[in-house]
Amino acid sequence: MIITRRRVLRDEQLFCVDEPFQTMYAVRFGHFKTFRVNLNGERQILGFPMTSDVLGLDAIGPARHASSVVALENSEVCAIPFTHFEQLSADLPSLQHHFYRVLGHAITRDQSAMLVMGKMRAEQKFAAFLVNLSTRYADRGYSPLRFRLRMSREEIGNYLGLTVESVSRLLLRFKQKGLLRIDHRGVNITDRAGMEALATGQTTAEPIASRVHKPPLVAADHQFK
Amino acid sequence: MIITRRRVLRDEQLFCVDEPFQTMYAVRFGHFKTFRVNLNGERQILGFPMTSDVLGLDAIGPARHASSVVALENSEVCAIPFTHFEQLSADLPSLQHHFYRVLGHAITRDQSAMLVMGKMRAEQKFAAFLVNLSTRYADRGYSPLRFRLRMSREEIGNYLGLTVESVSRLLLRFKQKGLLRIDHRGVNITDRAGMEALATGQTTAEPIASRVHKPPLVAADHQFK
DNA sequence: CGCCGACTTGACATTAATCAAATGTAGTGG
DNA sequence: CCACTACATTTGATTAATGTCAAGTCGGCG
Fold first, then answer.
1. Could you tell me if B111 and B150 lie in one domain?
2. Which residue from A62, A106, A110 is facing B114, i.e. has the nearest CB?
3. What stretches of B120-163 show up as alpha helix (H) in DSSP?
4. Among A6, A119, A195, B117, fewest CB within 10 Å belongs to which?
5. Which domain holds residue A147?
6. Are B198 and B178 contacting, i.e. CB atoms less than 8 angstroms apart?
C-alpha cells in the first residue's frame, strides 16, 4: 500500500465537499478545521482535527466527501488510498479491527459534540470546548494547561453556535473568575478543576474570589510544533 | 453467522451504556431513543432510530456501549454478533464494504445533527427536526406528510436542546403559520415547502396570511406499523 | 369519577444576539 | 523602520429569543 506524505499550508484546502472519496488522511502534525456549507451558504465548522486524528472518514458512506477540510497552520498529513486500504484490511484482521475502532471513535466523538451543543448554555459550551482541547493536548503529550488557540474567535463561535462577541465576553468572564489567563491566542488554564466544574454544569453559586494564585502568564509566542 | 430476532417492549432497554459490546442491532420495526447521561446525571437524547437503522455502532471503538437505547413502542430488532460479523466480513469483501458504508453514514448523520444543534434557532431546529422525520418516513415508504410522533414533547425538547414549553409554543406557531396540523401526537404537514424553507433558514419576512387551504385533520389514532 | 402525567398557556427573568463603535494587531509597501 | 490598511478582537447599549416559574387544561386509565 502506497502511503504518501503531503504538506498542507495554512489556509490551504486538503479536500473539498462533494469531491469523490479516494483517500483518507492521518494528520502527522498541524491543525485543521472541518466544515460544511448549509443550504443558506453559511459555513458550519464541525471540528478542529489535530495530530493523529484521521480525516475524510465521513466520506466512506456516500463515496463523496461530506465536509471540507482546511489547514489552520502549516501541517502535514499521510494520504492513505482507501481502496488499497480496504483490500489490505481484508487480509489483515488486526488492521480491519483497528479501523473499526477508529470509525467507532469518530462516531462517539461526534455524539459527544452533540451533547455539548444541545443542552449547554454558552458559558458551559465554551468551558467544555476548552477542557476538550486541554485533554486532547494532554493525550498528545503536550501541556494541558498552556496551549495556543489555532483558530480565531470567529471560528470558535461558529463551532459552538455563538457569536464572536459572546466568545469574547466569555473569555473575559473566565479571566475574571480566575479560571484562565489569555494573551492573544495563548491560553493558560489556571484552574482546571473550576473549568471542568463549569463544563459539567456543577457550578454552585460561585464562591467569588478564591483560588487566585497567579501562575506566570504565557509568553505570547509559544507554539507546539 | 447466527442472527436472532428480539422483541423489545415499550420503555424496555435494548442495551445500556458501559455494557460490553458484543452485538449490533438492526431495527426490524418500531421506534427507539438513544441517549447518554452526562456527568450531572441529566439525560441527553442523541437520536430516534427507527426501522432499518442500526444500533450500537458507537460501541465499536471503545468496546463498550457509549449510549443506552430504549424502545418508544413495541419493536423488534435483529441481533448481530459483532465478532462473528467481523470474521465473516473479512471473507466477504462486499459485506465489509457495505459495513463501511453504514459506519460512514452514521458519521455523516451525526454531523448533520451537529449542524442543526449548533447554528440554528429554536424555530429552525424544530422545523429541521420535522423535515428530517418526514424524509425518513418517505425513505421507508410511509407518508412524509402524515405521521405520528412516537416521542413526547419533553423528549423532542431534550433532543433539540429546548424546553418542553418552547416545543409546545413552536407547535402552536407552526399551526398558526399554516405549516401543519397537529392532534396530540398526530402530525399532518400541510406546507412541506414552507417547512423546509424555515428549516434551511430561507425565511424572508413572512407573508402573514397566505397558503391557508386546510386539508382534513388527521385521525387521532393513525399509526405506522 | 377522580387522579396523574402530558401538554398548554401566561407572566416574567435571563441569556445571548444584534447593532454600533472603538481598539488592537498583523501585514504590506514605501 | 514606520505609516497605513485590513482584519481581528473587545466593549457598550439595546433588543429579541428562550428559559423559568406557576397555573391551568386535557385525556387516559384505574
1. no
2. A110
3. 122-139, 153-160
4. A6
5. 122-199
6. no
Each residue's pLDDT tens digit, B145-186: 999 999 999 999 999 999 999 999 999 999 999 999 999 999
Nucleic strand D near CB of residue A165 (< 7 Å): yes
Give the CATH number, domain containing residue B27. Answer: 2.60.120.10
pLDDT tens per residue, range A168-203? 999 999 999 999 999 999 999 999 999 999 988 776
Confidence grade of residue A1 (pLDDT, cut at 50, 70, 90): low
Look up residue A51 and give its three cell numbers: 495530530
Mean pLDDT of B88-94: 85
Neighbours of A152 (CB within 10 A): 14
B111 and B125 inside one domain: no
Q: What is the pLDDT of residues B93-120, one digit of tens each?
A: 888 888 888 888 888 888 888 877 778 8
Q: Which of residues A148 and A114 earns the better pLDDT score?
A: A148
Is the same domain home to B113 and B32?
yes
Tell me which residues from 182 to 201 on chain A have a beta carbon below 7 angstroms from nucleic acid strand C.
184
CB contact under 8 A, B36 and A111: yes
The DSSP bridge partners found for residue A187 are: A147, A182
Tens digits of residue pLDDT in B7-20:
999 999 999 999 99
Whether A107 and B28 have beta carbons less than 8 Å apart is answered as: no
List all nucleotides in chain D with at least one atom under 7 A from a protein Cβ.
Answer: 8-13, 17-22, 27-28
| Same domain as A112, residue A169 | no
Chain A residue numbers touching B110 (CB-CB < 8 A) = 107, 110-111, 113-114
Number of domains present in the structure of chain B: 2
- Whether residues B93 and B146 share a domain: the answer is no
